[in-house]
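Work package 3, deliverable 3.1, input record:
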Amino acid sequence: MSEEIQRFTCIVCPLGCSLTVTQQPGQAEPAVTGNRCQRGLEYGRTEVSDPRRILTTTISLTGATLRRLPVKTAAPLPKQFLLPGAEALRKVSVAAPVRLGEVILPDLLGTGVAVVATRGVPPGS
Amino acid sequence: MIPLLSVDVAVIGAGPAGLAAATAARQAGAERVAVFERLGEPGGILPQCIHNGFGLHVFQEELTGPEYAERFVVQAREAGVEFWLNSMVLSLSAERRLSVMSPQGLVHVEAARVVLAMGCRERTGPNILLGGARPAGVFTAGTAQRLVNVEGYLPGREVVIVGSGDIGLIMARRLTLEGARVKAVVELLPYPGGLARNVRQCLEDFGIPLRLAHATLSVEGRRRVSGVVIAPLDETGRPVLSRAEQIPCDTVLLSVGLIPENELSRQAGLELDPRTGGAAVDERGETSIPGIFACGNVLQVHDLVDYVTAEASAVGRWAGSSQASGSRELALVPGGNARYVVPQRLSAGLVPPFTISTRVQRPAGASVVRLGGVVIARRAVVRPAEMIRVDVKPGDWTKVLAEVGSEGCLRLEVEEERP
Ligand SMILES: Cc1cc2nc3c(=O)[nH]c(=O)nc-3n(C[C@H](O)[C@H](O)[C@H](O)COP(=O)(O)OP(=O)(O)OC[C@H]3O[C@@H](n4cnc5c(N)ncnc54)[C@H](O)[C@@H]3O)c2cc1C
Ligand code: SF4
């Protein structure tokens, strides 16, 4: 095994630091440079082993003038679940009223990650 | 008779800028603060921005647009701000008189102070693109965002995005998640228009090609779009026609920038800065007409809503206080790699810290930001997509005044550091 180097942009905050992640053979944790903060360090490490993203999308809403309810995953989802997750949510529908933060699905596709509403829809709106 | 309303502060627009300014004005002591919003709900553009990434600076957590908006609406209501929804401001005079079309009919408003927070609108791009047949299927990226996220309507199946601004990048991902195929994002410049993080998480994550330094020559199709013709640029910036290619698609999104919405500002006759497209303001956000302030996207196009909130809170505090206007004897102009600078005027007697914003013309490595020759900040990299905001410290301001004296013209420069 030889040294493995990956370069990519940190997406944790808008500063968008250019990270370099180097995995030395036999070393447990890869080394991260280019990050300006601790969160960037953690992101650099998980990005090379288990990349995850928050999924945001909308679902169908009934019983309100608003027709779509925006939702997000309550935690980052393994990246390969982004497209299947969005597809699954396209078939989900809820009825108003909805509270901000209300759990819409407790477990998206067996990932253990819940889907929550990102806006409230009060009764009669 | 048309009713006349008297307020201390009238805020035009209930986007993040208007909400933060109104809240701050109340907190600074203004009695009656009214926000006028033409739409049926507050939040500005945020309710349609359903992706996460808002509020990292302000709340230290990653919120979606609607969540961010909801927090500020709650704050504003708790602070006692008066909301006028479905109320469009039709005119504004230099004497700070507004006419508003509201659900109660036409209302006249006289305001001791006015805060402009009307946001911006999207550029529709070079008209040559749409010459000829004008087929259906061409949208601005923001219109497509509203169609998909609020109205639940997918504008097309096979999409080409012209321009690589943030809204276009966000929409590339959004349409992909909704099952459309985004075939390319085409950018004229050799670097992306949007933030690096959006290039990564919206394009690279989904394998969407970014064609930098490519001109979009034409949009094909008679009734519906059938394709887009693009060509790479040579070193002189001319399209190489022999290498033109057609990308078949049924939908084109334009993401070619935003311009401040300044109809009312022009009506009132206040001075605009051609570099920003917004009002020329002093360190308090006060325009050339005393008592009229500006903040948010109507002042300068922001890429981060957090900065909108910070800017608008500061401006709202001034608008809500009863202090007299600044003396504004110093003019501030951009130099070096700086494309513009806000504020455009400074009062020599101002009390720091105050904030200066600028954007660069071209990407560069490690750079210094200088005010009147004094280094006030350093940046590891600078990109046109990212606004540079610097809080000028009291010590630095003293040095600046010692350098330039208290009258005349001050230069704000961004310059790459020589190794
Ligand atoms: C389509 C689009 C998408 C965007 N997406 C993002 C994003 O994903 N992330 C991000 O950080 N930034 C995004 N931005 C930038 C975003 O605009 C700013 O972050 C922020 O919303 C600007 O706040 P604002 O209050 O200045 O303007 P806005 O949010 O645009 O609010 C202005 C408000 O003023 C109202 N108004 C205008 N004229 C009048 C009038 N005459 N009378 C009454 N009301 C009036 C409008 O209806 C609107 O509600 C986007 C911008 C646009 C245009
Ligand atoms: S490393 Fe830290 S500062 Fe840099 S982009 Fe990532 S989170 Fe932001």
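The longest helix of chain B spans residues 305-320.
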